[in-house]
Amino acid sequence: MEYPRRLLTEGESVVHEFHSHWRLLVIPAFWALVGLAVIVLTWTWLPPDEPIVDWIVTAAGIGIILFWGFRPFINWFFRMYVLTTERLIVRSGVIARRGFEIPLENINDVRFSQNILERLLSSGDLLIESAGEQGQSRFADIPEPEAFQSEIYRVREQRAAELAGAAVDPASKLEMLARLHRQGVISDEEFESKRRSLFDQI
Predict the structure, then answer these.
(1) E runs forming strands in the chain
(2) For the chain, how are helix, strand and coil distributed in percent, rounded to 5?
(3) What single DSSP character describes residue 7?
(4) 3: left (phi over 0), alpha (psi -120 to 50) or beta
(5) Cβ–Cβ under 8 Å, residues 87 and 104
């Protein structure tokens, strides 16, 4: 499941999007197998002359599969973490959707934590401190929390540089662009595209 690109602002792009760690599906998978085993054993081992009992036990097995197996999987599938070039987004819910967003420039600090099991499975928690109403936001059971922490810092720095550059006049930007082109940092195609954009601003 992808984050809808139509919800992105102009010039915004998705850097990383993911679900919670797969280990959250282990227990639901176990219960789904239990429910399936109950159904199979009911129709292969119970006496065939007790159809009412068979259907009652089958209904119980289906209930186990749906409530403890399928429902947690659906909740996992529809909970998304999205890092874009402008914000950090969390979305969850199937029919009643909910979520929140943190602009990258509002993020003050990002901390991660892992216990021994989480470190072995490359999962953990992130605690994000930000300005505004959110204050502290905890992202629990995400994959590769340390790598994601570094990614947030990297994208946040790029965002800060873009916002700072927005205050620079177009002529200064053009000089900087030409210098980067001479140094080989940007390609000819990128240079021409950005040069035309800057000329439109002058």
Answers:
(1) 14-18, 80-84, 87-92, 98-103, 107-113, 123-130, 136-143
(2) 55, 20, 25
(3) G
(4) beta
(5) yes
- Residue 115: Cβ-neighbour burial (10 angstroms; 0-12, 13-18, 19+): exposed
Q: How many CB atoms lie within 10 A of CB 102?
A: 19
Q: Can you tell me the distance from the alpha carbon of 163 to that of 54, in angstroms, rounded to the nearest whole number?
A: 67
Share of the chain above pLDDT 70, in %: 86
Specify whether the CB–CB gap between 7 and 71 falls below 8 A.
no
Give the model's pLDDT for residue 146: 93
H helices present in 4-115, as ranges: 26-45, 51-64, 71-77
CA dist 66 and 163 (Å) reads 48
